[in-house]
Amino acid sequence: QVNIVESGGGLVQPGGSLRLSCTAPSSIFRHYGMGWYRDPPGKPREMVADIDFGGDVHYGDSVKGRVTISKDNAANTLWLQMNNLRPEDTAVYYCRIGPQSWGQGTQVTVSS
Question: What whole-number distance in Å separates Cα of residue 20 and Cα of residue 106?
Fold first, then answer.
């Protein structure tokens, strides 16, 4: 069982910002690609943003221009900066490290 911990979720008004963080053991963090995914209510899981092992970044179409993924290998931390949040961004957000290691999720609710 890999200990992956997300934090930073919460309730925010439309147009607001949140910064999610994810920490993982260095034993996996520095050896794999990683990313953020989300489970919107009643919808399938979707990719929000990822960084592959080569450093290339990809964003989901629904969040392009509003989110930025970044990482700090020294701190074993992955971030997701989300700006101009919309009600449709409401979801449980998960961090993935490597092909099959997932965090427990953090709830993001965008509502006035």
Answer: 8
- Give Cβ neighbours of residue 75 (< 8 Å, ≥ 6 apart): 23
Both structure tokens of 96: 């993935």
Q: Indicate the pLDDT class of residue 28, thresholds 50, 70 and 90.
A: confident
Rounded to whole angstroms, how far apart are CA atoms 94 and 75?
19
Residue at 83: amino acid letter = N
Which has the closest alpha carbon to 88: 48, 59, 36, 57? 48
* Residue 10, both tokens: 């919460």
3-state secondary structure (DSSP) of residue 72: strand
Residues 52-94: tens digit of each pLDDT: 999 899 999 999 999 999 999 999 999 999 999 999 999 999 9
Q: What's the CA gap between 54 and 106, in Å, rounded? A: 27
